[in-house]
Design a protein that fits this description.
This protein is mostly beta strands and about 350 residues long. The chain is about 15% helix and about 50% strand. The protein has 2 helices and 23 strands.
């Protein structure tokens, strides 16, 4: 998911990039960020899917007390729930640990139910592994449950606590029911402004997930995608919306450029998947490769890199299980990563 050529139209965008760098260097900077943005967004989509399903289940039928997540590490607790007819208001916490002692997400959800469908408005505060605030996620989503699957789709914004630009995101997923689910489709979308480069970058990545049972309600996940949509535009121009059939799209006056291929594995279908978990994105047009993997099961930290197909390293990144850490570019510049999102 990278830039092949700089847009020469767009006025302020082209001028802002060319003031400090040659066109070739500026293009490479954008290329590295956009493939990294997409690579991190894959983890972000998985994180949002897992946490939002937990919030939905807890809000509409969860029990009291601390409940360990059904797969992997983590737990959740209903702190408050008020039901009035078809409307449920709930305050739910999700934790890094299985004993509800190390908070990760505090979700304030408003759920309107109708038969087997739900519309959810939610504000969620994210906390770092150290306990400090990461930012606020605001989402509007819908979930429709049938005998064969649960379809979840929604869009939202993440406002980083550190003052970085707001990030727009989206997710759609059709999760099948059954003891051994067949492959199922998901999409993740992300768009944000990068002030230092004078550009907005966005992507939508459709991924097919294949689950292999390895125990009761335990699955290893293989995922792949051969087509993605990447868009660039002037600062502030892009966001994530949905089409009439609830598919994701990058909205705004942007230009679509390259496409790439993704492949990966997760050790479990879980909020914090164990080893072996990792994924790779290859963009043949710009000859860049993004790769990242979980290092160990104790910390669930991840290391990643962006390299050329010839092996030249352009960036390295290190994040914890919340997706928070830093990226260091080839020129030695280091920027923060917050909740699977790049700094602008």
């Amino acid at each position: 998911m990278c830039v092949a050529l700089l847009i020469t139209s767009g006025g302020a965008y082209a001028a802002n990039v060319s003031r400090s760098k040659s066109s070739k260097d500026a293009t490479t900077d954008i290329d590295v960020r956009v493939i990294t943005q997409q690579g991190l967004a894959i983890a972000l989509a998985s994180n949002v899917l897992q946490s939002q399903v937990t919030v939905l289940f807890d809000a509409t039928g969860g029990g009291s007390g601390c409940v360990p997540l059904s797969t992997g590490t983590g737990s959740s607790k209903i702190l408050r729930r008020v039901v009035s007819g078809a409307v449920t208001g709930a305050l739910i916490s999700i934790y890094y640990d299985t004993a509800c002692r190390h908070p990760y997400i505090e979700a304030n959800a408003h759920v309107v139910s109708s038969n087997s469908s739900y519309v959810i408005n939610e504000d969620a505060e994210y906390l770092a592994t150290t306990g400090g605030p990461l930012g606020q996620l605001r989402v509007v989503e819908a979930a429709v449950s049938t005998a064969s699957r649960v379809v979840v789709h929604g869009t939202g914004t993440f406002t980083p606590h550190d003052g970085a630009p707001v990030v727009h995101l989206g997710l759609t997923c059709a999760i099948p029911a059954g003891n051994v689910p067949p492959p199922f489709p998901c999409e993740g979308g992300i768009a944000q402004t990068f002030p230092q480069l004078g550009v907005s970058l966005g992507s939508v990545t459709p991924i097919t997930l294949t689950l292999k049972a390895v125990g009761s309600d335990q699955y290893v996940v293989h995922f792949a995608s051969t087509r993605s949509t990447m868009v660039r535009a002037a600062p502030g121009a892009l966001s994530i919306g949905t089409t009439a059939n609830s598919q994701l799209r990058v909205t705004g006056d942007g230009a679509t450029f390259t496409t790439d291929a993704t492949t990966g594995t997760a050790g479990r279908f879980a909020l914090f998947p164990p080893t072996p978990t990792g994924w790779t994105i290859t963009d043949q047009a710009t000859q860049l490769i993004f790769s990242i993997s979980v290092l160990n099961n104790a910390s669930r930290q991840l290391n990643g890199s962006v390299t050329t197909t010839s092996g030249k390293e352009l960036a390295t990144l290190h994040v914890d299980r919340s997706g928070t850490g830093f990226i260091t570019y080839g020129a030695g510049v280091t920027d923060p990563i917050t909740g699977w999102m790049l700094s602008g």
